Amino acid sequence: MAEATVEEKIPAVGIGTPGPVVDGTTMFAPNLHGWEDPVPVSKILGGELSLPVFAMNDANAACYGEYRHGAGKGCANVVLLTLGTGIGGGIVVNHQLLIGSRGQAAEIGHTTIDLRGPRCGCGNHGCLEAFAGIHAILGRTLQLLQNGRKSILLDKIQGDFGQLNQENIGKFLSEAAAQGDAVALEVFETTGAYLGAAIESVVMVLDPDRVIIGGGVSRAGDFILQPIRRAVAARTPHLPFDPNNIVLAQLGNDAGVVGPAVWAREQRSGVME
Ligand SMILES: [Zn+2]
Cα(79) to centroid of ligand 1, in Å? Predict the structure, then answer.
């Protein structure tokens, strides 16, 4: 019997990239140097590999991974928020990934939650990301400390505010919250309230089975999850949506690999396996 060809062993390749993706082309990814203009990722990689390549937005990829094999498994309607430097989003509606006409669907981080809010990296004012992205979490923490609040965090940074940064703030806040630190708990509560406001809007529009919280900040676990649930419960007393359906992601960084792999295989075969 002849050995299986590469094409038979590997039917397709999937890849997640930052930025909106339309027909395999990443339209712009301002955080990747040289990717300011459209990059035909599927075409370039497909040529190199001689295999069909399916590119998708990285947050959509994480959402699809969680939907198929993680916290959203078995659900028809799933929303995912990735909490990190930015706030990414992914949406599955009736078992279909929602991509939009320009690859821009599910940009939940850039929905406006305050008309007069601070300027966001995208140029808009009052985006969710400007209130709940890592930059905002860091700023909120520093403000409390600079106002003279006592906190375990001050020991961690030896009183030097400059020691706190976007890389360590999530870990420090989680450690401090675990020890009952009032500043850390307040930062999570406030951040969760903003996230809850945005999630309430998403629930009103999409009526999902599950809302999944992923990304680096979600490593804080219940410290961020429970404030989000409380905020959503307070805002949705009229809805049958159970805030316990807001859950933590299960696949971690693997979601960004599992999602494109499964999606590419399904795009290739035309069926959901
Ligand atoms: Zn924005």
Answer: 19
